[in-house]
Amino acid sequence: MTAARRPRLALAVSALAVAATVLTACGGQQAGAAATLGDTRISEQTLSAEVQAVLAAKGQPVTSVDESLPSEMLSRLITIELVDEIATREGIVVTQGQIDEQLANYEGQAGDRAAVERLFIEQGVAPSQIESIIRLQTQAQAIGIALAPNGSAEDQGQAVVDAVVALSEELDTTVSPRFGTWDATTISVGPTPDDLSAPPALG
Fold it and tell me: Are 125 and 54 contacting, i.e. CB atoms less than 8 angstroms apart?
């Protein structure tokens, strides 16, 4: 892989991680729910499995305590749900063929599948999660075009952000205070409340 291509792929992966920073304010939690979005529920069991997949990919014990990883993973899971709902409303369908094509592109840049997986692992994405991230990226690009067809790439990106914020508010998205707080106006994750500062045990 050339020096020019490696940063390009790494930046694409990193941008997805940044774009996936979505958590929500506390309140209205169902038992065992890490987050709720309208009628959709992300269970703590699902969150735990995804966190453990990343730890295993990094070669770390699945019982490791990482103060930020659960919140980062929950951010991603919520973002996937929100973007998927927006795509449904816009009539956007991402096919397996599109995902396979993008993955092949990454493999062409990195050299092979193993190299792609290493780059994603560096960004906290386990191999089993790569396709969901590519699907998210593809949906977001299509949504941006649908919402701002004559806009620049920056305009389209902002349109996606605005749509995610609006949908998050519409669905009254909430997250367990164990994992952090959410400011919908800035799409940023705040610190866990002081009285819940210990990292949550998952698994």
Answer: yes
Domains in the chain: ranges and CATH: 5-18+37-173 (1.10.4030)
| Span 17-28, pLDDT tens digits | 444 433 223 334
Q: How many Å apart are CA 198 and CA 163, to the nearest integer?
A: 33
Phi and psi at residue 23, to the nearest 5°: -130, 175
Tell me the torsion sign for CA atoms 119, 125, 130, 134: negative
Whole-model pTM: value is 0.78
Q: What is the identity of the amino acid at 116?
A: V
Condensed to tens digits (0 to 9), the pLDDT of residues 159-178 reads 999 999 999 899 888 888 88
C-alpha to C-alpha distance for 59 and 67, rounded to whole angstroms? 17
Task: Give yes or no for a contact between 146 and 101, defined as CB atoms under 8 angstroms apart.
Answer: no
CA geometry: angle 107, 15, 49, nearest 5 deg: 75
133: nearest Cα among 178, 90, 79: 79
Dihedral pair phi/psi, residue 25, rounded to 5°: -70, 160
What DSSP designation does 192 have?
Answer: P
Question: Which DSSP letter does residue 181 get?
Answer: E
